[in-house]
Amino acid sequence: MDVSFLGGPKPQLGVGVVAPFDFALDRELWRWIPDDVSLHLTRTPFVPVEVSLDLARLVSEHETLHAAVQALCAVSPQVVSYACTSGSFVGGVAGERAMCAAMTRAGERLPALTTSGALLEALREINAWRIAVVTPYTKSVTDSLEEYLKEAGVTVTGRAYLGLTRHIWRVPYRDVVDMARQAVVGAADALFISCTNLPTYDVIPQLEAELRMPVLSANQVTMWASLRAIGAEAVGPYQALVDPVARRGPASMTASWAPEEGAGIPRRGGLSEAAFAGSAVPSSEAEPADGLDVPPFHPPEEPGPPAPV
Question: By its UniProt entry, which Gene3D superfamilies does this protein fall under (predicted)?
Answer without folding.
Answer: 3.40.50.12500
